[in-house]
From TrEMBL:
Gene Ontology MF annotations: 1-acylglycerol-3-phosphate O-acyltransferase activity
SUPFAM superfamilies, alphabetized: Glycerol-3-phosphate (1)-acyltransferase (SSF69593)
InterPro entries, alphabetized: Plipid/glycerol_acylTrfase
Acyltransferase keyword on record: yes
Name under which the protein is recorded: 1-acyl-sn-glycerol-3-phosphate acyltransferase
GO biological process, one term: phosphatidic acid biosynthetic process
Species in which this protein is naturally found: Lactobacillus helsingborgensis
Matching Pfam families: Acyltransferase
Length: 204
């Protein structure tokens, strides 16, 4: 119920602050549940991705520190967020999203690099895709990287790529995970180039 309330509120705020959210290749999104996997470039990306892929509802991981504030904890929990300890992720970091994807309740937004401005892929995304048997949909954000740029109404571009499955028979060895991580990175590069050949992400 809260998710249905907060989504139009978030859409209005984005429109009020910027007014230029452009969604590209939404037709590539498959039916059913899926995993939106993106490189982490700004803190507002989860909001834009959830709006761009509406009416699908999403769950997402949030660092456990955010849940210490009671007001923020209420908002996060009712927006389908679940806490993850980045330094010591427990079994719930996999079990919670897998259960949500399997039960047909929600899709998942995930940032395989874990934190903003990092290109190092953390474990989890490939395992979740394999164990849930749900497709990975690569997605990228192109646009302002600062709140000032957002307020200057620079265009916000959300671009979806072609979905792909992780074979349930594949063993998640270090080599196989590295191969699939590289496949995801190449998908992001392809979408970036497709949307804007001159785009280059420069972390601050």
């Amino acid at each position: 119920m809260f998710y249905h309330f907060i989504r139009p509120v978030a859409r209005f705020i984005v429109w009020l602050l910027n007014g230029h959210l452009h969604v590209n290749h939404k037709e590539r999104i498959p039916d059913g549940n899926y995993i939106l996997a993106a490189p982490h470039r700004t803190w507002w990306e989860p909001i834009l991705f959830a709006l761009a892929a509406s009416p699908k509802e999403f769950m997402f991981m949030a660092k456990i520190e955010l849940f210490k504030n009671p007001i923020l904890r209420f908002i996060l929990k009712h927006a389908h967020a679940f806490p993850v300890d980045r330094d010591h992720p427990g079994p719930s970091a996999l079990k919670t999203p897998i259960k949500g994807l399997r039960n047909g309740n929600y899709s998942l937004i995930i940032f395989p690099s874990g934190t903003r401005h990092s290109s190092e892929m953390k474990g989890g995304t490939i395992a979740i895709a394999k164990l849930s048997n749900k497709p990975i949909v690569p997605v990228v954000y192109q646009g302002p990287l600062t709140f000032t740029g957002l307020l200057k109404r620079q265009p916000l571009e959300v671009c979806f790529g072609e979905p792909f499955m992780v074979d349930r028979k594949i063993k998640l060895t270090h080599e196989n995970e590295a191969m699939l991580d590289n496949k995801l990175k190449k998908a992001w590069d392809k979408i970036d180039h497709e949307q804007d050949p001159n785009f280059h992400y420069l972390p601050r």
